[in-house]
Amino acid sequence: MSDLSGFPIAARWPAQHPELLQLYSATTPNGVKISIMLEEIEHPYEAHRIDISNDETWTPEFLSLNPNGKIPAIIDPDGPNGKPMALFESGAILLYLAEKTGKLLPVDPAERYQTIQWVFFQMAGIGPIFGQVGFFNKFAGRHYEDKRPLQRYVAESKRLIGVLETRLREHGRPWIMGDDYTIADITTLGWVRHIIGFYEARDLVEFDTFTHVPAWLERCLARPAVQRGLLVPKPRR
């Protein structure tokens, strides 16, 4: 049996199956990237729900796994050289799982790096900007009298959706990389779903004026593994 005793987080969130990959997460756009990936590649795992509303990511146990205090994070008991390994940052975890299993990342070097560039596009652009729209449209920022920050982030969000629209429109691509669904789609779909849903900004970003992005999102959400992954981790009883 795998020994996770060297990881303080395992004391607070004990593993029932320590031989499985341990996922510490929540059902946020960044969190569901990993549960969707694990469901898509059919990799056995055990999920632990981290309550970000109660600041559980700032507990000593969680910070021992991710000093940046953000979900998701994993412990793979079967890491490189067969040794347990901890990893944080959703993009890094996606790349790790793709390379570990040989799935959802092209083998061809040029296509591989093009896929990675679209992962970075989401990490550096879509995630941070859409998150600001959420703050200024739905949360504390909505009370600010100065609406210029909201307007700035809405405009940039529309531009970013436009970049994705152009990418999908070119050559009639069904997925970001063309005919093959990859980690580029997984990393992006949760954020696009979030801005028009949870962040209540569908009209603000004029989502329905786009054609290819809405159709792409529907294809993503129709995938059984995506539907399962969006529900992980399950609420605590």
Description:
With 237 residues, this protein is of the alpha+beta class. The chain has two domains: 9-103, Glutaredoxin (3-Layer(aba) Sandwich); 109-224, Glutathione S-transferase Yfyf (Class Pi), Chain A, domain 2 (Up-down Bundle). Helix content is 49%, strand content 8%. It is built from nine helices and four strands. The chain has helices spanning 9-12, 29-41, 60-63, 90-101, 109-137, 148-169, 183-196, 212-222, 224-229, and strands spanning 21-25, 45-49, 73-76, 85-88. The chain has a four-stranded mixed sheet with strand order 2-1-3-4, with helices on one face. Strand 3 and strand 4 (85-88) form a beta hairpin. Helix 2 (29-41) packs parallel to helix 4, helix 2 (29-41) packs across helix 7 and helix 5 packs parallel to helix 7. It is globular, with a radius of gyration of 18 Å. The model has no long low-confidence stretch (mean pLDDT 97). Residues 108-237 form the GST C-terminal domain. InterPro entries: Glutathione-S-Trfase_C-like, Glutathione-S-Trfase_C_sf, Glutathione_S-Trfase, Glutathione_S-Trfase_N, GST_C, Thioredoxin-like_sf. Residues 18-105 form the GST N-terminal domain.
